[in-house]
Design a protein that fits this description.
28% strand, four-stranded antiparallel beta sheet, binds adenosine-5'-triphosphate, 262 residues, alpha/beta, binds magnesium ion, Rossmann fold
Length: 262
């Protein structure tokens, strides 16, 4: 898979919150046309890591490279200008606003009528509908409020928006966390669609069953440190699950729960 171009690379990055080291010596690679999964328990440092890639926080140690060039991101806008788009779990959508307005949120196409520039709402609706359909999301009506969509569909609108506006790297912080099996499937299909269009995707999740089918590489974090950094060929779903659950700890728990039976 090394023929894929490296878009973003963190080398040994670390982050302090006051005197607390939330992230220590973590490296991760994001390649075009691949999905990098970041896994770990609550407080492992997943959000901290992606906030460094997204320009929300600056790293205190290590190196961040974008397109092979060392950078220090000054803001989320800076990251976005370099093609790194992030969809946060709370999504920044406006529930009462229509799907197409949410799709554009401030970047609506405009047209001139005499001296006035007004939103080209018909063009915008068509563009939003097409962009969503290209990713396989066929909504009955882009006029409906986003609040009437399912959680999975809302994530999809946010992903389609990032793809449409030219993101090269798409970071998704726990997009499947609050979703049932079917809804999570809808979102994972979007992750695969973005990957197939050549984006580098960073997928954060607690769930190895969500990560494994779409992931090309897996970074496991525990208490701010990297527990493992694997390419898919080097790790099975069983092993990934075992490591996530703390390996030996899980085996002991299984043994205990199995009780006398067997
Ligand atoms: N702004 C902050 N100020 C101080 N400490 C923070 C801050 N953000 C995170 N932390 C701490 O840093 C550590 C890593 O947090 P982080 O949010 O990156 O974990 P996470 O893996 O995303 O967890 P979760 O699965 O719960 O989202 C935690 O101990 C957390 O309490
Ligand atoms: Mg988090």
């Amino acid at each position: 898979m090394s023929e894929h171009q490296t878009l973003v690379e963190a080398r040994g990055v670390g982050k302090m919150y006051g005197s607390v080291k939330a992230l220590d010596d973590v490296s991760v690679t994001v390649n075009a046309g691949e999905v990098t999964c970041v896994l770990g328990d609550n407080g492992a440092g997943k959000s901290t890591l992606i906030k460094i890639l997204a320009g929300v926080h600056q790293h205190d140690f290590g190196h961040l490279l974008i397109g092979g060039e060392e950078v220090r991101l000054s803001s989320p806008r800076d990251a976005l200008d370099r093609g790194i788009a992030t969809v946060y779990q709370d999504l920044a959508v406006v529930p009462l606003m229509s799907v197409w307005r949410n799709f554009f949120l401030g970047s609506e196409p405009r047209k001139s009528i005499g001296p006035l520039k007004i939103i080209d709402s018909r063009g915008a609706r068509d563009t939003a509908r097409k962009a969503l359909a290209e990713l396989g999301i066929n909504l009955r009506n882009v006029e409906q409020p986003v609040g009437t969509l399912s959680g999975g569909e809302r994530q999809c609108v946010a992903i389609a928006r990032a793809v449409h506006f030219g993101a090269k790297v798409l970071i998704l912080d726990e997009p499947t966390a609050a979703l049932g099996v079917k809804q999570a499937g809808i979102v994972l299909r979007q992750v695969a669609a973005a990957r197939d269009r050549g984006l580098g995707v960073v997928l954060i999740t607690h769930n190895p069953h969500h990560a494994y089918p779409v992931g090309d590489r897996f970074l496991l974090l525990k208490r701010g440190a990297a527990l493992g950094n694997y390419e898919k060929a080097d790790i099975s779903l069983e092993e990934l699950t075992r490591q996530m659950a703390g390996g030996a700890e899980l085996e002991a728990l299984e043994h205990e729960l199995r009780g006398v039976e067997g």
